[in-house]
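G., before I forget:
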Amino acid sequence: MIAFAIKRLGLAVLVAITVSALAFLLLRASGDIAIALAGEGARSEDIENIRRLYGLDRPLLVQYLDWLWKMLQGDFGQSLFFKTDVGPLVLAKLPTTALLALFSLLFALAISLPLGILAAVYPNSWVDRLCLSLAVAGQAMPNFFFALILIIVLAVWFRVLPVSGSESWSHFVMPTIALGYYIAPAFMRLVRAGMIEVLASDYIRTARAKGLSGPTVILKHALRNALVPVVALAAVQLGFLLGGSVVIETIFALDGLGFLAYQSITHKDLPVTQAIVAILSFVYIGLTLAADLANAWLDPRIRVG
Amino acid sequence: MSEAYAPQLVEVAGPTSGALMRRRIFGHKGLMFGATLLLIIILMALLAPLLAPYDPYAQDLSRRLIPPIWHEKGTWEHILGTDNLGRDYLSRVIYGARISLLIGLSVMVISGLIGSALGLAAGYFGGRVDMIVTFIVTVRLAMPLILVALAVVAMIGGSLWVVVLVLGLLKWDRFAVVMRAATQQVRSLDYVIAAEATGASTPRIIIGEVLPNVLPHLVVVASVEAASAILLEAALSFLGLGVQPPLPSWGLMIAEAKTYMFFSFWLIAIPGTALALLVLAINMVGDGIRDVTAPGGRN
């Protein structure tokens, strides 16, 4: 187990370094921030001065290593638009987005677990078909469009929820639904497939033969085993939720990392954008690492093979 | 788009005869519904100049925000009404199909080529090649897709082809993952080993033996990716960082209508529904193809 953990951790560090380098180069290659900084109609001397001032005249590799080194010490540089340190700015917004992602995941699980189990217990019945149709429809609905519909229905017609902002818990309800419903179908299909497989296995037949009641067999014996792949998917989807928060937080003006990312991108505030991309990547790498270790611990075949 | 592959699948499905396959395809309600819907949208896009009653870019400020025909103030002159600049909404929705389909198809081709090449190589050669490809895929998956796409498109400057290129170069991960797994499966089958034994060259084995047999998987992933590229373009354009005005991208139309949505709900409902229907059609075709090509066949 320890050998497996060390190997997996080494891979995670290697991935993190590669991702950060790639994200850095990709954003640098896409446009010249010195020109963006100088603003329109700036003289070429000004642009040159800015380039020297921000160290943009150095080779890219040196700039990257400098950025990485400072970041590891907690220095994310200066925001060009907000005129403050990037580190505290980003960290202040992280809890909002983490909460939103967590709520969305829980919301998605709350829908997909019961529906997935129902669909598996009665395969090819009308319940199964209904769940499948819901999944297909949900996957086709653009989440920003769904978010706007939620605003119109819940905030304008029924006036039960605030349109935008992030002052109270009620501000999280619509963003949670708008972000969470989209990943529910994937969970539902996985739970359904896992449950159907498990329900056909010998030990479930044994449990039934012992005379255990239907719900006990399903919830106590089958679900636990059907959930193993769900853990891995949850880690991957949490990463998607963190990234997808850009669209949803912007629509609801929820003051998190996603909204900050949108603002930094529209203002070409590269240090902030880079920091957010790096942090979200690291969070994703950490989550998948945790999920892999959890699965290896649950299932010895993974860590040996 | 996706159903163009269907006739070839008749041959690759193995033991099932052509007639049985046809019965499966035509007996699959979801596939038939999705394919019909998709065909209608494709025809709409191809025949846009013939179908659209007006020029989608022609503004008429004296005829702004006319509601659609089912509304009491609607008029037959503008069946789906007009937008805030007095442009005919029906014409814009019809031309919008071109943008979504173009994005879906181009991103699918670019990412499909990259991902399939990586996946085939990893699955076929295994060993070190597999290790490197797996690492590349892991790195790609760790990058927050929407965020990176948004940032890069915004830095370069949004346009249709920038969006296509950025999404195409970023979205190949699923192709690689699925093709790798499918190739690994086919790799150890008798006919591949037989082809190797007869001394066939590696490219010939990959193109002639492996590729046709992983094609059903490829088609399914392609449909999923096309749908997701269409949704991503719409999201980028909705945020104002994708396709730029005055192009009638459905995502952009929703963004432009956002200010008016409380009074003129149809302005976001119409392009939103169009987008959802297109994605629904593509997904149903993909799901249907997976069902009818699965061994044993569902339904």
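The interface with chain A takes residues 30, 135, 138-139, 141-148, 150-152, 154-157, 227, 231, 234-235, 238-241, 251, 254, 258, 261-262, 265, 268, 272, 275-277, 279-280, 283-284, 287 of chain B (CB under 8 Å). Confidence is low (pLDDT under 50) at residues 1-11 of chain B.

More on Monday.
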